[in-house]
Specification:
This protein has helices spanning 12-23, 48-56, 60-64, 101-114, 154-158, 235-246, 293-312, 323-346, 352-365, 368-379, 466-474; strands spanning 5-8, 28-32, 119-121, 129-131, 134-137, 140-142, 144-147, 165-166, 171-181, 197-200, 203-211, 214-221, 251-262, 265-267, 272-273, 276-278, 284-285, 396-399, 402-405, 415-419, 434-438, 440-441, 448-450, 456-459. The protein has 475 residues and is an alpha+beta fold. The chain has three domains: 5-164 and 266-379, FAD/NAD(P)-binding domain; 171-262, Alpha-Beta Plaits (2-Layer Sandwich), CATH 3.30.70.2450; 396-474, Glutaredoxin, CATH 3.40.30.120. Strands 3-2-1-7-16-15 form a six-stranded mixed β-sheet. Strand 23 and strand 24 (456-459) form a beta hairpin. Helix 7 (293-312) runs antiparallel to helix 8. It is globular. It starts with a strand and ends with a helix. The relative contact order is 0.15.
Amino acid sequence: MRTEVIVVGAGPTGLMLANELTLAGVPVVVLEKQRTRSAQSRAGGLQPRTAEILDLRGLLDPLLDRVLPRGEFGGHFAGLPVELDCRPWRTRHPYPVAIPQARLEALLEQRLVDRGVPVLRGFEVSAIESESDGVTVGDIHGSYLVACDGGHSTVRKLLGVPFPGTAGTRSSVVADLTLASRSATVPSTSEHFSRYFNSGGGFFTILHPIEGELYRLVFGKLSDDRPARETPVTAEEVDEALRAVYGPETTLGELREASRFSDAARQVERYREGRVFFAGDAAHIHLPIGGQGVNLGIQDAVNLGWKLAAAVHDWAPEGLLDSYHTERHPVAARVLRTTRAQSVILNPIRDENLATVRDLFTDLLRLPEANHFISGMMSGLDTQYPGLGPRMIDLDLTTPDGPTRVSRLMHSGRGLLLSLDDTPRSIDRWSDRLDHVTAKADADSTTVLIRPDGYIAWSATDEEPLETALTRWFG
């Protein structure tokens, strides 16, 4: 089989990347070793910036029909009892979107199936041949391969790519379950995430309702007793944790799904190895706190997708593919640092010194300036790449065809020259790579050039000519 891009891994990162490539007219094949999609809730929500990105592709509205019944609560930092306020970041989605990972994957995979893209499940990669003109996996040959196959990436191991960082010091369990009985201390309504933390009887827990009778439980022992990651999670240990923290009247009903995770933090040194790229957990892992993992992966995919498409269509300017590493590696490196910091603050083995640190950080988060800084960092709304402007605000616009929004003008996955003034400009040389729309806005009336991933590449206030920016990003 011949294709242009081989995507290994059918999680959110791989599926989003395949959708981006397909939208750009690039042939792609997705390989996944699991025969069926996991039903475990895993990541439980989308950060505001990821919601914006899905909105850029028309993917958010279908997901909003599948969200969990939760109120409008801000995000959190290290489980501290202060809501992160993203409203000052001028986003249409200031609150995390409560959507289980499995529902996101189902939507993304169905989009691929509807477009005739092969998603080959039960395909285990056992060897990779990487040459100057392409990459071969089994009988599939492509121009490029992207490893989106998770923290234990087979692709990374087969290629001998190091995964430096820090090993895990704590082991925890995440489980989807129902309760046969429960005490009054078991939360039954949606609240800010900080209200779900508890401890007792040698365990720490995070227990909250998902939907209907289904609960999500995260727990671990306060001792150094750490079962190996591969050790199956038993109903007995889940029931023991429930009883220890919530009392003997709280008992396990059905254990639906469960897995173990650690606070390991690792990142590949280079996101590109010749014609092979790394994205999502294959490129970086960290403590899953604050809803960072899926969001990093989705944003990796959207950053890389249009650049790979440009290379396949033979118009990528020099250095465009390498800019994927340059732009995304520092973003994940910062997430690794912040999750390490949160791990220290979250440490369930509480002592007097840690309590003072928590109190200090709580007071800081109540300061608008500090909350703004942390909310931008945790949500991804503050991400800005070297040499670029910030993300484009999703403005309301009036065009000759009627009212619209910036996000709706970018559903094609192409770049956008948005003319918000009366200066005539021509993009004829680049008309097959981006769209040109003239509009009026109530604010921000500067003309901007927007990359397919939603970041401003040029504005009329810049000193350099528009043509220079067009050549730099669109060949």
